[in-house]
């Protein structure tokens, strides 16, 4: 299972790298989004995948999943959610002001 | 809005409330079971977004006259102050307490200080999601 | 276990939240955020005193003891930086009141300024790696908003790039945390220090170097070291002077702080990382200063200079002896004060002349002599001339470098110092010295007395840190000892 997950994460990272390197604004934002999914999955996988036991640590629990990665990944997802929302709004504003979604045209300044 | 989509309105009125009730269930399920403030908040926000989608902005603004920035503020304040409360008794910040009480109707119930904290998160998530969506939606120019 | 440690984080958080409700009242906003910043600074001042006398203080949040819960740790380094952040915050507020339009100030500026402080102070104080990530994000999101506030053309395009680059590096932060958690099973920094030291003694410790370098990538992006600095000059040029000063003085320094913490506490016996730090430190400072020499814009020169000075700090961490760490801290403190001071001066000249381009103004010394000479003091302090604060940090770094035998990188740092002096003098000679030439004649009459007042404490501080360097330097030396021996930190966190 871990090996499969590692491949999935690798694919996510690859796709996001491709998207981030494109010139279209929206694709770059999507690339960052996919990168965050890859990173979260990486966290869950590296801290050990277990099936069949709840993440509760009773005194006599025979088997349990480590609750920490789940809590941390939830936090990271929430943060990613906020950043993505902000980034989309910012991209939208930039698109409105510059009337382009091409990163090639989003460079230089007025005084150069 | 002359072409009122009747089917959408009828379905929305039913479905939105089902989602709302489910979101409240999720909110209270949190802490020891899957659920909690964040998930409940997102669910509530999705119900409200459904309302905004099927009716128009102005109608819903009349029904729900909140400034969502204040909703976020209220949520953050509630969550922060819950953490502060323990400090007055000499416990470190964010220490949580819980106790089991016998309540009428509900029977034995666990009351925790995590609940107001979660309520704060719930408010923040609802406020934030709607604020972002409405900011983009209202920008017609 | 004292709740005092949480206050530098909690006060700005509460104040920021309360200010959401007073969006429309300028007076309440100003009063509350000044009081909050002052309280934060006062408490961190007291914490310095307490830590200096009683040793490292910790608090376990939510009463979950380390290494399972999140701890906040106040050692000399973190509380001093919180204190400096507080001072800089106060100065920035007063400067912003003079320069900001009412519209900009109404737009939740105070709330996000205070949230930025929450993130900065939290990053300094936390003793948990994941919590560090969270505070980093709090800081970054606030900085995203502050940098894009105003929505001018240039600002939007540069802040979008800033946001994307920082978010990508944050995702690598999660990946690095995932690696380190997978290898050690803990995220508490003190616990990590112990466990990683044990792992280095085993045979296959190559994975640790990989993790150390992944972290270096993440913090290198935030603190703008050599191959990863390209975003900084543009992004810091975009916002108004007050915000640029806050960012230039503080945000990259948070990145430097984390590099310092990670590589003195956790990866302190990695064989490769310190070589790489030295190499990148040297490259960062030299390439940064070359960029500054080439520029002809006040704010751009200062922005590119940030890169160069980060190089010095990275070099100091790379040398790694107690004296070098002490020098690094001294330089860091000096740089927070002086760099933001210079950004304020850029703001003042912009207010006078309406431009920051050097070729469009000259002879300001005749019309505004105070501005000119105060700028001169700050500028030569940045270049590292005695008896000002910049000299002692560099001096300690040079001596430490010679003791450790890193002659080449020291030579580079001295050459960088000369070029720094050159680029600072370029600003002074072209815009302040020389024939009086102003873009519009009314600029001559423009009074900027109110704008200079907030900057005075910074100029005073750089003089004090230079003239009366001895007590401050002894303090830094003690800090150097505390940082280079992780056992102090580990014992005070894990003992409880």
TrEMBL record, chain A:
Instruction: Tell me the protein's name.
Output: Multicomponent Na+:H+ antiporter subunit C
Report keywords, A-Z: Cell membrane, Membrane, Transmembrane, Transmembrane helix
Q: Does the keyword Transport apply?
A: no
GO CC list: plasma membrane
Instruction: Report the locations given in the UniProt record.
Output: Cell membrane
- Quote the PANTHER family the UniProt record gives: ANTIPORTER SUBUNIT MNHC2-RELATED
Entry similarity comment: Belongs to the CPA3 antiporters (TC 2.A.63) subunit C family.
Q: Which ranges does the record mark as transmembrane?
A: 6-21, 28-49, 69-92
The cross-references to InterPro entries, in alphabetical order and at most eight, read: CPA3_antiporter_subunitC, NUOK/Mnh_C1-like
Q: What is its main location?
A: membrane
Q: Which residues form a coiled coil?
A: none
Report the membrane topology from the UniProt record: Multi-pass membrane protein
UniProtKB/TrEMBL annotation, chain B:
Cellular localisation: Cell membrane
Q: What is this protein called?
A: Multicomponent Na+:H+ antiporter subunit B
* Membrane-spanning intervals of the chain: 12-30, 36-55, 67-94, 114-137
Q: Where is the Na+/H+ antiporter MnhB subunit-related protein domain?
A: 8-130
Q: Which InterPro entries match?
A: CPA3_antiporter_subunitB, MnhB
Q: Does the keyword Cell membrane apply?
A: yes
**Alphabetical UniProt keywords:** Cell membrane, Membrane, Transmembrane, Transmembrane helix
TrEMBL record, chain C:
Q: Which InterPro entries match?
A: CPA3_Na-H_Antiporter_D, NADH_UbQ_OxRdtase, ND/Mrp_TM
Kindly indicate whether the keyword NAD belongs to this entry: no
* One BP annotation, GO: ATP synthesis coupled electron transport
Q: Which residues form a coiled coil?
A: none
Q: What is its main location?
A: membrane
Q: How does it sit in the membrane?
A: Multi-pass membrane protein
Location in the cell reads: Cell membrane; Membrane
The answer to whether the entry has keyword Repeat is no
User: TM spans, by residue?
Assistant: 6-22, 34-52, 72-96, 108-126, 132-150, 162-182, 207-229, 241-260, 272-294, 306-325, 331-349, 370-392, 404-428, 448-469
- Molecular function as annotated in GO: antiporter activity; NADH dehydrogenase (ubiquinone) activity
Kindly state which keywords UniProt assigns to this record, in alphabetical order.
Answer: Antiport, Cell membrane, Membrane, Transmembrane, Transmembrane helix, Transport
Residue ranges constituting the NADH:quinone oxidoreductase/Mrp antiporter transmembrane domain according to the UniProt record? 127-420
One Pfam family in the UniProt entry? Proton_antipo_M
Naming one, the record's GO cellular component terms include: plasma membrane
Q: Which family does it belong to?
A: Belongs to the CPA3 antiporters (TC 2.A.63) subunit D family.
Q: What is this protein called?
A: Multicomponent Na+:H+ antiporter subunit D
């Amino acid at each position: 299972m871990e090996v499969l997950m590692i491949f999935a994460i690798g694919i996510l990272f690859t796709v996001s790298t491709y998207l981030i390197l494109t010139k279209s604004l929206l694709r770059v934002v999507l690339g960052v989004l996919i990168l965050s999914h890859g990173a979260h999955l990486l966290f869950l996988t590296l801290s050990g995948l277990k099936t069949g036991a709840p993440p509760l640590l009773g005194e006599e629990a025979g088997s349990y999943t480590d609750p920490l990665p789940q809590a941390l990944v939830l936090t990271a997802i929430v943060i990613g959610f906020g950043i993505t929302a902000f980034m989309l709004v910012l991209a939208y504003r930039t698109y409105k002001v510059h009337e382009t979604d091409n990163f090639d045209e989003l460079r230089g300044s007025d005084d150069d | 809005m002359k072409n009122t989509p009747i089917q959408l309105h009828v379905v929305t009125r039913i479905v939105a409330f089902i989602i709302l009730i489910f979101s409240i269930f999720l909110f209270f399920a949190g802490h020891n079971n899957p659920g909690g403030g964040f998930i409940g908040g997102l669910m509530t926000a999705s119900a409200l977004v459904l309302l905004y989608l099927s009716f128009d902005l102005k109608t819903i603004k009349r029904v729900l006259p909140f400034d969502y920035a204040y909703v976020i503020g209220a949520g953050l304040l509630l969550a922060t102050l819950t953490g502060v409360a323990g400090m007055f008794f000499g416990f470190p910040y964010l220490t949580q307490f819980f106790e089991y009480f016998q309540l009428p109707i509900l029977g034995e119930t666990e009351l925790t200080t995590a609940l107001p904290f979660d309520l704060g998160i719930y408010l923040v998530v609802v406020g934030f999601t709607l604020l972002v969506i409405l900011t983009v939606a209202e920008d017609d120019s | 276990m004292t709740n005092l440690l949480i206050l530098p984080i909690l006060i700005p958080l509460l104040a920021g939240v309360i200010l959401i409700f007073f969006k429309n009242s300028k007076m309440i906003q100003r009063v509350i955020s000044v009081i909050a910043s002052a309280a934060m600074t006062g408490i961190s001042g007291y914490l310095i005193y307490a830590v200096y006398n009683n040793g490292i203080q910790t608090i376990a949040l939510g009463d979950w003891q380390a290494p399972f819960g999140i701890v906040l740790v106040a050692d000399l380094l973190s509380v001093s930086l919180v204190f400096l952040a507080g001072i800089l915050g106060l100065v920035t507020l007063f400067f912003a009141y003079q320069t900001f339009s009412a519209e900009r100030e109404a737009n939740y500026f105070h709330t996000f300024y205070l949230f930025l402080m929450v993130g900065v102070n939290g990053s300094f104080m936390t003793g948990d790696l994941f919590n560090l990530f969270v505070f980093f994000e709090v800081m970054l999101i606030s900085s995203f908003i502050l940098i894009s506030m105003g929505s001018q053309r240039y600002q939007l395009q540069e802040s979008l790039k800033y946001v994307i680059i920082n978010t990508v590096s944050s995702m690598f932060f999660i990946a690095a945390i995932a690696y380190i958690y997978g290898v050690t099973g803990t995220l508490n920094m003190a616990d990590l220090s112990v466990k990683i030291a044990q792992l280095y003694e085993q045979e296959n410790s190559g994975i640790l170097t990989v993790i150390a370098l992944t972290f270096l990538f993440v913090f290198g992006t935030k603190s703008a070291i050599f191959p990863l600095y390209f975003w900084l000059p543009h992004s810091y040029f975009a916002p108004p002077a007050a915000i640029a000063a806050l960012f230039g003085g503080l945000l990259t320094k948070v990145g430097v702080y984390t590099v310092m913490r990670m590589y003195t506490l956790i990866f302190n016996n990695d064989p490769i990382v310190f070589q790489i730090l030295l190499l990148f430190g040297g490259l960062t400072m030299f390439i940064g200063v070359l960029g500054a020499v080439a520029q002809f814009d006040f704010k751009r020169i200062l922005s590119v200079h940030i890169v160069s000075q980060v190089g010095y700090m990275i070099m100091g961490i790379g040398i790694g002896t107690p004296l070098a760490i002490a020098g690094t801290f001294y330089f860091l403190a000096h740089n927070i004060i002086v760099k933001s001071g210079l950004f304020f001066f850029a703001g003042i000249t912009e207010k006078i002349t309406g431009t920051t381009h050097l070729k469009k103004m000259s002879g300001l010394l005749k019309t505004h002599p105070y501005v000119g000479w105060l700028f001169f003091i700050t500028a030569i302090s940045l270049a590292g001339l005695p008896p000002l604060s910049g000299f002692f940090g560099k001096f300690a770094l040079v001596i430490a470098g010679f003791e450790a035998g890193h002659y080449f990188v020291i030579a580079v740092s001295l050459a960088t110092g000369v070029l720094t002096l050159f680029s600072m003098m370029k600003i002074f000679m072209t815009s302040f010295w020389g024939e009086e030439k102003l873009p519009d004649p009314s600029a001559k009459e423009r009074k900027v007395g109110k704008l200079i007042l907030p900057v005075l404490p910074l100029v005073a501080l750089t003089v004090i840190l230079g003239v009366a360097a001895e007590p401050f330097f002894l303090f830094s030396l003690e800090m150097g000892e505390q940082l280079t021996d992780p056992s102090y930190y580990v014992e005070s966190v894990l003992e409880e």
